[in-house]
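P.,

For your records, the input lines for the assembly:
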Amino acid sequence: MALQNSRVSKLFDIKYPVIQGGMVWCSGWRLASAVSNNGGLGLLGAGSMHPEVLSEHVTKMQQATDKPWGVNVPLLYPEIDRLMDIVVKKGVRIVFTSAGSPGKWTSFLKNQGITVAHVVSNSRFAKKCEEAGVDAVVAEGFEAGGHNGREETTTMTLIPLIKNSTSLPVIAAGGIATGSQFAAAMALGAEGVQIGSLFALSQESSAHEAFKSYCLKAVEGDTFLSLKQLAPVRLLRNKFFDLVREAEQRGASADEMRALLGKGRAKKGMFEGELDEGELEIGQVVALIDEIKPVARIFEELLADYAVAVSRL
Amino acid sequence: MALQNSRVSKLFDIKYPVIQGGMVWCSGWRLASAVSNNGGLGLLGAGSMHPEVLSEHVTKMQQATDKPWGVNVPLLYPEIDRLMDIVVKKGVRIVFTSAGSPGKWTSFLKNQGITVAHVVSNSRFAKKCEEAGVDAVVAEGFEAGGHNGREETTTMTLIPLIKNSTSLPVIAAGGIATGSQFAAAMALGAEGVQIGSLFALSQESSAHEAFKSYCLKAVEGDTFLSLKQLAPVRLLRNKFFDLVREAEQRGASADEMRALLGKGRAKKGMFEGELDEGELEIGQVVALIDEIKPVARIFEELLADYAVAVSRL
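Structure tokens returned:
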């Protein structure tokens, strides 16, 4: 089937069912508009934006593209009412929600005519999405960067499980940075993919250049799902990571882990480029990424490699 | 490409590039011959057999099929010299080695004209395989049951990494129990798949019926990579598993873990059906398996679903 005809392409009115993850500290209007202008769906990452900052990015986004785009809203956001108010008032048409239950905000958004996708890591939540009236689910596997599910289900296993649990279109996330991985996700039954790490390390990403360069050097086994006592998050090895591992291995309490984590670590690492003290969130696929590319080239290569992978079958 | 034309099919002279993992306590001559007679490659699991027992199974295997088949040999096997002697003397043509370095035994086996595949979980070992003269590598992801790599790399990420590191044919393992997962593995660049859990829970598997029935009830999040301080192994939740988790969470020492594990736990759980005290090894895909089927039906369904998955692309 042509990618243009997938339910995900049609739902969002996009050329390729390629969604850019709305990652914290990476996903401003430059990255999101570049993705949308290249035929995918760009998402502003509201999780790391104050409401006023999101408002500015929405305005810039509206100037930078006439293609569909959206906003990712983590439902644990402290000022979520203000954020949702901006989303509605400024005419955002697509919202991806994550890190919370789809029950609360879906009907509010749907009543405004907004298309809603929700990120899940198990089929129980996929069913909840369907009940709540969500339009599509993002199923995110263990290999994904950043916050992650407690079941540790990998994308390969998760997509068939989610497909068995819901009739909604499924967008696969976690482990997708090449055309062959994109094709594999579609073979599993996904109708689109959400790509994080590859776009986090693109030229247009707002992540700090020091973070991007550091990621290019990462190899297999350099990321681990960490901080499981608090909320599991996939981190790249650095000095802070070593402290976390050491504490985990000696069975530190949740309170100790919270104290060690402190506040603002992800900003420090990913946005301010403090590679020792910061929290560096990235997926396992970082080991496959060895160049910072512009979004246009990422799309070219992804689609060409996708075609090669499909032709192998 | 037709499955018959993959390099893995040609290497082993089999119809479908579907290898049955040589799992401990599951993989006697009944299972392995059924797989070979249905067009795949059956493997006797020598890891749980005394040398004399293996010898018997080889004889029965030779009577039960005229199709190609092999033996899986974990290289940590205590009496490995005797085992290899039997393999050679009884005319075994294919050996899969695992749990060790491919350096030592590959040339011995190759000198006897035996085809050799080796199981790896990272690209460093895939390169070693190529240097050692191995004919194909099995790349096993984090989601696989039983013993597993330390890097926790999932199949989705691992296959492209392994493909980048070697020109050998790659057999994907971990996360494969349906035709869509088979197709996904091939899209990733694998040229064959090794299937464990699905065959461990087949009618012909020598695992205890109580173990099989218990596995059918498993859902998402019921297996975890455990005993990481010793050798990481994916286990299914049961009473023993709970003790392991509790010990891990309080930061128990490696010695404590060794004492807790004791000896013969896998036999107890999987072969003797002691569901509380035994170690139950199975992959994440257990959540997708809800019926004990004969191998013939497993092949029918796998191939039909594979065709459906490919036609979606």
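Two observations worth noting. Chain A has two domains: 3-206+288-312, 209-285. The longest strand of chain A covers residues 69-74.

Regards
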